[in-house]
Amino acid sequence: MKVLLMLIIFLNSVGLMADEKIKLSSIQLYTLGIKLGKLTAIKSVPLIDAPAKVIIPPDNEYIVSTSHAGLINQIKVTLDDKVSKGQVLATINSPELLALQRDHLKSVNGLILAKADYRREKKLFTEGLIAERRWRKTEARYNVFLSQVYETRQLLEISGISTEAIKSLEKTHRLSSEVKILAPISGVVLQQMVTVGERIVAMAPLFRVVNFKTLWFEISVPQQRIQHVQIGDKVTLANTQVSASIFLLGKQVVENNQSVLVRAAIETGQDFVRPGQAVSVKIRPSSSTPLFRVRNSALAEYKGVNYVFLRTQSGFAAKPIQIISKERKKVIISGDLKEQNEIAIRGAVALKANFLDLIEKN
């Protein structure tokens, strides 16, 4: 409650300060060495320079593993190899797979017998030759075996066994301990975490496969400039053909560097960048907020707030502004100003003294 009260008092004081009128005659303007100039909006919005990192979208990166423990028999790819979806990356000898196939065949055989009983009992029940309870019992047994077959078949599919291989197993009853590790997507092998002859446990990571079709810039924009960045703004990388479009603006400020996370999808020139690369990008804001370029001498600062002094009929009014970027002798500002407004471009120090005198009196 105390913090809220202090915030309200501060905001009200800023409003009062902005409304303070400094009354000066023409003779006083001359005496104080105050020079006037008209505001002119800049036609092109300045670029924002910001550090960035090239990252891979989460949907385009996979860690390949297997659900069974076993021994690595063969590895068919190496780092930076291009692979297609479904391509064999490695083979594993897994005793667990033999047990899973045996359970599946047991379920299939049980289903065959249960299905024969089901058909026979259904006919007898239809003809009124057996009791309903006996028929329901046979029907329930058949459904149990049917569910078991679905379960063991799905476990084989999860293990990487293809539908054709499962059908062949059901037909020939030939068991195999070989597990084929398949590429989940088309892409590039960026990491190999196992070697031939190595024993692995279930769910151990084996490969990292990445699709480079889409890359992102993860940009750190200074928090004081984030309000001039919008969804859809363009991002470029100097001396390259790389261009990107902003699709996400972060909702919080990173404490250690007071920046806001911005993400942009790279649209052209992906061959010029690589994941993990640190770069410096330029953002071209499309903000509709009027921006003005003024001399450094036109600014005055009080309690962390920057002001320019707007010419009025009787003198000047202090107008709070925000500095967008700094140049050698000038700054780019935004605020409640209009083009062709007159401001003091020299003598702001003298006006600030009058401004502070008014504040103390109030």
Please identify the structural class as seen in this structure.
alpha+beta
- CATH first level of the largest domain: which class? Mainly Beta
Low-pLDDT runs of 5+ residues are: 1-19
Overall domain count = 4
- Helical segment count: 6
SSE order: HEHEEEEEEHHHEEEEEEEEEEEEEEEH
Largest sheet: 6 strands, antiparallel
The 3D shape can be described as: elongated
Radius of gyration: 37 Å
DSSP strand (E) fraction? 35-45%
Q: Under CATH, the topology of the largest domain is which? A: conserved putative lor/sdh protein from methanococcus maripaludis s2 fold
Measured between the Cα atoms of the first and last residue, the distance is: 26 Å
Short description:
The protein has 362 residues and is an alpha+beta fold. Helix content is 30%, strand content 36%.
Describe this structure in words.
- This protein is an alpha+beta fold.
- It folds into four domains: 19-45 and 289-361, conserved putative lor/sdh protein from methanococcus maripaludis s2 fold (Beta Barrel), CATH 2.40.420.20; 48-57 and 214-284, Beta Barrel (Elongation Factor Tu (Ef-tu), domain 3), CATH 2.40.30; 62-94 and 182-210, Beta Barrel (OB fold (Dihydrolipoamide Acetyltransferase, E2P)), CATH 2.40.50; 95-176.
- 30% of the residues lie in helices and 36% in strands.
- It has six helices and 22 strands.
- Strands 1, 17, 18, 19, 20 and 21 form a six-stranded antiparallel sheet that branches. The chain has a six-stranded antiparallel beta barrel with strand order 3-12-15-14-13-16.
- The longest helix has 32 residues, at 95-126.
